[in-house]
TrEMBL record:
<dbReference type="InterPro" id="IPR012854">
    <property type="entry name" value="Cu_amine_oxidase-like_N"/>
</dbReference>
<feature type="compositionally biased region" description="Pro residues">
    <location>
        <begin position="1158"/>
        <end position="1177"/>
    </location>
</feature>
<dbReference type="Pfam" id="PF07833">
    <property type="entry name" value="Cu_amine_oxidN1"/>
</dbReference>
<dbReference type="InterPro" id="IPR036582">
    <property type="entry name" value="Mao_N_sf"/>
</dbReference>
<keyword id="KW-0732">Signal</keyword>
<protein>
    <submittedName>
        <fullName>Copper amine oxidase N-terminal domain-containing protein</fullName>
    </submittedName>
</protein>
<feature type="signal peptide">
    <location>
        <begin position="1"/>
        <end position="25"/>
    </location>
</feature>
<feature type="domain" description="Copper amine oxidase-like N-terminal">
    <location>
        <begin position="33"/>
        <end position="139"/>
    </location>
</feature>
<feature type="region of interest" description="Disordered">
    <location>
        <begin position="1158"/>
        <end position="1184"/>
    </location>
</feature>
């Protein structure tokens, strides 16, 4: 009893020590007792840097008796043999008559007695947690009598991840990460991390954990957050074996319960196989891009960063893996991938980044041709060039899917808050139009809450309702647009101030590209605010906190604007939901002063129930049974007097007598069968502690997509066909019926994400006053996990001469339904024992060394076993022993299935030579002869059967018809290059000048290389021809290669000087640059002089034929085109790599420039005085 009190006092004392004194009251503080939220009529607040909590609510939650002395202003709380006395405004309290000094006195705030959390400074030792991000206080009482009175058993950790993060070949390479148990604070004592050989994972269960010695697992204490553990070199697996290289492992995490609680074991992590201690470095920064529109491998370009030191790397292999298969893809599967399932990228030059583009025949690692519409992930395998260091696999690229669309992606350049309308008009978006808009009909702008933007993608954008995005028609210029006042975010909420958003832009395909839309990257975050006038309240929350049937039941909280400098007060307006849709700023300012609640203070957030006489905006008293929404009006002051801003509305609330109907808790769900209906769904929950006012419970199954908005009002409306009714009395655990339905009326089935709620149904005077459970279950998706099928068509082949498992190739068809299969095990059985080998014996083969584990791939499987492979008796696989092979389908649950046995096989030696791999041809040197070709290939694994290798050069035009018989017929020594086995890989230049047909190797023909492995047996039938290398063509000797001259030289002589332009040659790949040379008319220019002018800087050097002004002549004198005429030449300058002979154009004349003559202008004389001429005598006019 006393421990309960100390747990309460712990929060009073410790929380202010955990909180920084600079904390603000605008982030709500939540208190949880033993995992259950403590609801109070007044939220915790800060006073003088100390958190104040409502005393009565906490004491009553801990079943204490509280007495109030109005006259003495004193509260007395009694629990068992503990008595606490506090006096309002006094800094001295007593615990069992022992005085304790408080930092801040108890005080009455808004009608509630509040106490400082730093209370009885030295009296505590209970567990109190504080999460600074969520502002959450967690109290764990020692006897678990706080909160809901039942801590329960710990839940399993939410995930377990095992990674190989090193190359030591021991436990130091392994890192285990896991998510904390959901009820860690109240139920978990500690965690245990188990490392299990992957072959034993199927039998490792909760019972098995109790048999593991203490030295064979790692222990971690709870921290309140997810954890990671890097193991040690001495770490052992559950069998007691030190962790080592070349062994596959999985990890489990056990949540160990407190007291007598049962433990909870996680699911297994993915499988990890440690590399040997020595390995080459991995490629990094692997990126895959959709670069074309062929619908095959040519669309994929993969780039990556090569290791800083790759001298020990022969080349790189790019592998494309279906994203759905990446969980089973590792170094082992990469090493065993068929050569058709990767491309080779050779090291080249000093570039830190390399790139490879696939071809039309490229396949993914399952052997399927790469195609559109499939999600892939790219990996890069660093291939070691030595036998002492192993290969290394990169991390995967981001998942990508090839699309038929060639529509480019819009680019957002800016989003900003431009005004104070409190809606979409405030949000202005700028984005760049597509350079080619012929494939699209227009654009869509999506506004996404910043809290959700990481989950927003093209698929979700395509499914957004047209009312929840803004469309723009395409136009000939970039966009800079504001949204409309009615614009909504993708969730259907109107855009408003105080919410952080990110914006996406979609280009909408049209015509043959209809449906092939593209989505931009997200914009930067933007939060609209009233920075231009009166700020708006945000985060309005409402709750039903009492059963008074008036305003005291309605608890309202909100977050004030960050800038209150223009605000005098706030008005809380309660509006009937039926009128809330049309309630606007005009109506809000017209509400009578009797019909709203005024909060005069600014500077803090509001957290309070309304008064008993509170009314809605229509003047009606607030009461039960009426659906309301709450708005808050910000009232301006000063120069903004008469200016108002209306908030968005709260969620709807209907008050009811719901505090006397208990709620179900601890809802858990499990998938327990394979009926594909409600019988697969097992539901358990803890009933209400007081069931006196409850008639029964209703189990309601809700699609996860709708669970966030599922509340009491919706639960009360669910049709009786769409829930399962359960009688009260005792806790509940059972599966639903075969015809159980979700709340939408759909039959419960596989493949749908569900969450489960429980409704407590009131009875008697509380009939109709139901209560919805405290939260829901976790999400569950039913699936086929019990029906495990065997594989058909197990066949075997002898493919080598190693006298071990590598000679044994096993093929089998995948099971017709792999849904419930975790992996396959290949079991090799001596034929003498095969007749009695059955499922029971197969399940008993627990030593992972005695079978070969194969990950399911979604396709048929062909694989050769390893050199160390053993049969089920533990004997190494070898020649001359008859075997039959079985395949065990290992279920995700506890069920397995065994295939029929293969036909009998007895391995034996063969004289056939092996085919070389890793064949490539490169050019090294520029002599223009056969010796420039360098050939590299990997030696065969077993050279004991090889007498020699023959390197054959074949024109690419003939490569398709060149077979092993043709190679055997090349007997003239000058027509191939002989290489003797040397025990190492081969890399050398050609020794002979002729191709396989006896023709001289030349610079005009494209060739490919083949290697014939010649068997020691001397029998041509035992020879093996390799696959063709890449294409290669000898470059001519650059000393003999000339480059072309320019053409169409245009010369203009004018006031600005001499301007020259020209047309570059079509074949300009070997041209480094050009030089324009001006020569005074009458002076000859030859190629040697042109070269000298270029070298001496007396020519104008240019990169292309664009118009340029020549400023000096060949002698370095300035151009003077008013006195001299010039001849203009253009010199083509070779790059000196592939060509060394320059080319000079013909001369082109630049004539004299004669400036135009300006006419002389006589300045006007000053105006002479006006002179009146003398009057002339009249002359008579004679008419003839």
């Amino acid at each position: 009893m006393r421990k309960i009190w100390t747990s309460f006092l712990a929060v009073i004392l410790v929380v202010p020590l955990l909180l920084q004194t600079t904390a603000h009251a605008d982030s709500a503080i939540n208190v949880y007792i033993d995992g259950s939220p403590l609801k109070t009529d007044q939220a915790p607040i800060m006073v003088q840097g100390r958190v104040m909590l409502p005393l009565r609510a906490i004491f009553e939650a801990l079943n204490a008796t509280v007495k109030w002395d109005q006259k003495a202003q004193m509260v007395t709380a009694i629990k068992g043999d503990t008595t606490i006395v506090l006096k309002i405004k006094s800094k001295v309290a007593t615990i069992n008559n022992q005085a304790v000094t408080l930092d801040v006195p108890a005080q009455s705030i808004k009608g509630r007695t509040m106490v400082p959390v730093r209370f009885v400074s030295e009296a505590l030792g209970q567990e109190v947690g504080w999460n600074s991000k969520t502002k959450r206080v967690t109290i764990t009482s020692s006897d678990n009598s706080g909160g809901n009175g039942n801590v329960g058993n710990p839940s399993a950790v939410s995930y377990v991840t095992l990674r190989d993060n090193g190359s030591n070949g021991d436990g130091r390479d392994l890192e285990v990460s896991f998510g904390k148990s959901l009820n860690e604070a109240s139920a978990v004592d500690h965690y245990r991390v188990y490392i299990v050989k992957a072959g034993n994972a199927s039998w490792f269960n909760l019972s098995a954990t109790g048999k593991v010695s203490t030295g064979n697992y790692s222990t971690l204490l709870p921290t309140g957050s997810d954890q990671s553990l890097r193991l040690l070199s001495s770490t052992r697996d559950v069998d007691g074996a030190v962790i080592k290289a070349n062994q596959s492992y999985v990890a489990f995490v056990l949540a160990v319960g407190k007291g007598n609680a049962t433990n909870a074991l996680s699911a297994a992590s993915g499988t990890v196989t440690l590399d040997s201690g020595a390995s080459v470095a991995a490629a990094t920064n692997v990126k895959a891009s959709d670069v074309s529109d062929y619908g095959d491998g040519r669309d994929i370009s993969v780039s990556f960063t090569r290791p800083q030191n790759d001298s020990n790397i022969n080349n790189y292999r790019v592998l494309i893996v279906k994203t759905k298969d990446v969980s089973g893809f590792n170094l082992s599967t990469a090493n065993n991938a068929s050569s058709q399932s990767y491309i080779i990228v050779n090291k080249s030059g000093s570039n830190t980044s390399l790139k490879g583009t696939l071809n039309s025949n490229s396949r993914d690692t399952s052997g399927e041709i790469i195609k559109n519409g499939v999600a892939y992930t790219a990996y890069v395998l660093s291939v070691s060039n030595s036998s002492t260091e192993s290969n290394k696999l990169s991390s995967g690229s981001s998942s990508f899917t090839l699309n038929a669309s060639a529509i480019s992606i819009p680019t957002i350049t800016q989003v900003r808050d431009q005004s104070d309308n409190g809606d979409g008009r405030d949000l202005r978006i700028s984005f760049t139009k597509l350079s080619d808009e012929s494939k699209i009909s227009g654009y869509r702008v999506f506004v996404v809450k910043a809290s959700d933007y990481a989950n927003f993608n093209l698929s979700k954008a395509n499914s957004v309702s047209s009312s929840n995005y803004t469309s723009f028609n395409k136009k000939n210029y970039n966009f800079d647009e504001s949204l409309s006042s009615s614009a909504r975010d993708v969730d259907g909420a109107t855009i408003r101030t105080g919410v952080s958003y990110r914006v996406f832009v979609m280009a909408v395909g049209s015509g043959s590209y209809t449906g092939n839309n593209t989505l931009s990257s997200p914009s930067s975050a933007v939060t609209l605010s009233n920075i231009y006038s009166v700020g708006m309240v945000t985060n309005i929350n409402v709750s039903d906190v009492y059963d008074n049937n008036d305003g005291r039941d309605l608890y309202v909280s909100y977050t004030r604007p960050s800038d209150e400098s223009n605000i005098s007060s706030y008005r809380i307006l309660v509006v009937k939901t039926s009128n809330a849709g049309s309630f606007n700023l005009s109506k809000a300012t017209a509400v009578s002063g009797y019909n709203y609640y005024t909060q005069a203070s600014v500077g803090s957030n509001f957290n309070q129930a309304l008064a008993s006489g509170a009314k809605d905006v229509d003047g009606h008293k607030i009461q039960n049974g009426v659906s309301y929404n709450v708005f808050v009006l910000s009232v301006g002051k000063g120069s903004y007097n008469g200016t108002y801003t209306l908030s968005a509305k709260s969620s709807s609330i209907t008050l009811s007598n719901n505090y006397t109907v208990g709620k179900a808790t601890n809802i858990t769900v499990n998938d327990i069968s394979d009926h594909n209906d409600g019988r697969d769904l097992e539901v358990a929950f803890t009933r209400a502690s007081d069931e006196s006012n409850i008639s029964n419970y209703r189990i309601m199954v809700v699609k996860s997509s709708n669970a966030g908005s599922f509340d009491l009002a919706k639960a009360n409306l669910v049709n009786s066909y769409n829930y399962t009714e359960v009688n009260k009395g005792g806790n509940y655990k059972q599966s639903l019926s075969y015809n159980a339905r979700d709340v939408d009326g759909n039959v419960i089935q596989n493949g749908v994400n569900y969450r489960v709620f429980v409704l407590s149904v009131g009875t008697g005077s509380y009939a109709g006053n139901n209560a919805l459970s405290l939260g829901s279950s976790s999400t569950i998706t039913l699936s086929y996990n019990y029906n495990v099928l065997p594989v058909p068509n197990v066949t075997v082949s002898d493919i080598g001469d190693n006298n071990d498992g590598r000679d044994l190739e096993v093929f089998f068809n995948k099971a017709s339904d792999e849904t419930s299969i975790n992996h396959y095990r290949i079991l090799v059985v001596k034929s003498a024992n095969a007749g009695s080998f059955n499922l029971t014996k197969a399940n008993a083969v627990n030593n992972s060394s005695n079978y070969t584990q194969v990950a399911k791939r979604g396709d048929n499987i062909k694989t050769a076993l390893s050199s160390g492979a053993r049969d089920v008796d533990g004997a190494t696989i070898r020649n001359d022993v008859p075997y039959r092979v079985f395949v065990l389908s290992v279920g995700s649950g506890n069920n397995n299935a065994l295939s029929q046995g293969s036909s009998e096989i007895t391995l034996s030696m063969s004289n056939a030579a092996e085919e070389v791999i890793g064949l490539s041809a490169t050019l090294e040197g520029n002599t223009g002869s056969f010796s420039d070709i360098k050939v590299s290939f990997n030696k065969v694994a077993n050279e004991n059967k090889i007498s020699e290798y023959r390197i054959l050069i074949v024109p690419s035009s003939s490569i398709g018809n060149f077979k092993v018989q043709d190679a055997n017929n090349v007997t003239v020594a000058d027509n191939y290059t002989r290489v003797a086995p040397r025990g190492s890989n081969v890399s050398q230049s050609l020794q002979n000048s002729r191709d396989a047909y006896g023709n001289a190797i030349n610079t005009d023909t494209t060739y490919q290389v083949l290697v014939l492995s010649v068997a020691k047996s001397g029998n041509p039938a035992d020879n093996t021809l390799s696959r063709a290398s890449n294409q290669v063509r000898v470059n001519p000797n650059p000393d003999t290669v000339s480059i072309p001259a320019v053409s169409d030289v245009k010369v203009t002589s004018d006031a600005s000087g001499i301007t020259v332009s020209f047309t570059e040659p079509a074949a300009k790949q070997n041209i480094a640059e050009y030089a324009i040379i001006a020569v005074p008319k009458g002076t000859a220019l030859d190629l040697a002089t042109a070269r000298s002018a270029y070298s001496d800087g007396k020519a104008l050097k240019v990169k292309d034929g664009a118009a340029q002004i020549v400023t000096q002549d060949v002698y370095g004198a300035p151009i003077n085109n008013t006195k001299l005429e010039y001849d203009i030449y253009v010199l083509s300058v070779p790059n000196m790599i592939n060509a060394k002979i320059p080319a000079l154009s013909p001369s082109y004349s630049a004539g004299l420039y004669v400036p135009p003559v300006q006419p002389e202008v006589t300045p006007p004389a000053s105006s002479p005085p006006v002179v009146t001429p003398p009057e002339q005598p009249s002359v008579p006019v004679t008419t003839q």
